[in-house]
């Protein structure tokens, strides 16, 4: 028979090794998380110039469209006899363009859903194009 003190010392050693393994895994995970954070921060710093350039270009484009719209409204107002009519006409044109742009963005998504429904119906043997016999 094995002595109880020997069994106890074995279990204590196993428990100590287990605790050491757990603490090593915890420290490894903490270091891995810290490394991932540093890697993402480096990517952000590398792309900082690109982000600034895109933001500056976007702001410049918005300002350009604003000034062109105001100039067009004033010019149309001079042609139509009153500045208000110029601003109204430019506003209507912009509203129509926004509506067209909004519809063109929404419509492809609807076509995708319809196409996916048709594909799944054909795969499941429910083809509505053929007459059911």
Account of the 3D structure:
The model has no long low-confidence stretch (mean pLDDT 83). The termini are far apart. The chain is elongated, with a radius of gyration of 34 Å. The relative contact order is 0.03. The protein has helices spanning 4-46, 48-80, 83-123. It contains three helices and no strands. With 133 residues, the protein is mainly α. Helix content is 88%, strand content 0%.
Oligomer: single chain
Question: What is the residue-averaged pLDDT?
Answer: 83
Instruction: Compute the CA-based radius of gyration.
Output: 34 Å
| Principal-axes shape call | elongated
- Write down the secondary-structure element order: HHH
Low-confidence stretches: none
Number of strands: 0
Q: What is the count of helical runs? A: 3
The main β sheet shows up as: none
What is the beta-strand fraction?
under 5%
The level of helicity is over 70%
Termini gap: 82 Å
Structure class: mainly alpha
Explain the layout of strands and helices.
Layout: H1 4-46, H2 48-80, H3 83-123
Helix pairs in contact: 2-3
Label this structure with key terms.
133 residues, mainly alpha, 0% strand
Q: Briefly, what is this?
A:
With 133 residues, this protein is mainly α.
